[in-house]
Each structure stands twice: as structure tokens, then as C-alpha cells.
Amino acid sequence: MERRVRLRRASDIKAIYEEGKTWKHPLLVLMARPNRRPVTRIGVTASKRLGSAVVRNRAKRLLREAARRLYNKFGSGWDVMLIARTRMVDARAEEVERALAALLRRAQLAQRQRENNSA
Question: Which residues constitute the domain of residue 34?
Fold first, then answer.
């Protein structure tokens, strides 16, 4: 992900945990709050409960890649935190991407695509 769309400051991440809204899926948790910016910023984390550093880094890579592929579907003006859950250890990239897409729809963060249905 580009540097400008990554959440880097601890204060921004803390604000999401304190003020953000949460949506859960068996593979991941999505937390979001408005950021009053023209861009959506994304942070990724995995706790030690997941396993070794190798396992945590793989989970974060899967989340970052799913977010990168779906970034154009995110609406603008959000700070989003993606948190890996224990089931992510056995997940494939496609499953993580589907789970993130489902959470975006449920959280209504997904940009609505205009359809050209002329009848």
C-alpha cells in the first residue's frame, strides 16, 4: 500500500480503538471512524495470540494485500484498522479478500458502483 494511505501514528490508531465502530468476521475484524480527509487510511495488526512472528507477518501480509486489491472500493474519508483473528492462520488470500469485501459491504464503507442499466 502507498505510504499516504497507511495509518502510522499511534494517536490515530488509538482514536480508532476508542471512537471507531467495529464489524467482525471469523477471519478478521474491521474498525473504522471518519477522518475528515479526502483519502481513506488503513492500518493492519495481528496479536501474539495468533502465533509466532512468521504466522503474524503472514496474516498481516494477507490483510494488506486484500486491502490493496479492494482499496478502490473503499469510500473516502475513513481511518480503518484491520485486525487478524486466529482463523486467519489457515486462510488463503482469496478467502481473506472475500471476507474483507463482505465486511466493507456490511459496514457500508464500500463505494457504491454506478450501474449502467439502461432499459
Answer: 3-106
Q: Which residues of 30-61 are buried (b: 16+ CB within 10 A; e: fewer)?
A: bbbbebeeeebbbbbbbeeebeeeebbebbbe
What span, in angstroms and rounded, lies between the C-alpha atoms of 80 and 60?
14
- Rounded to two decimals, the pTM is 0.88
Nearest Cα neighbor of 28 from 41, 14, 40, 43 is 43
Domain count across the chain:
1
23 within some domain: yes
Residue 64: name the closest of 53, 47, 80 by CA: 80
pLDDT tens by residue, 51-73 = 999 999 999 999 999 999 999 98
For residue 117, being part of any structural domain is answered with no
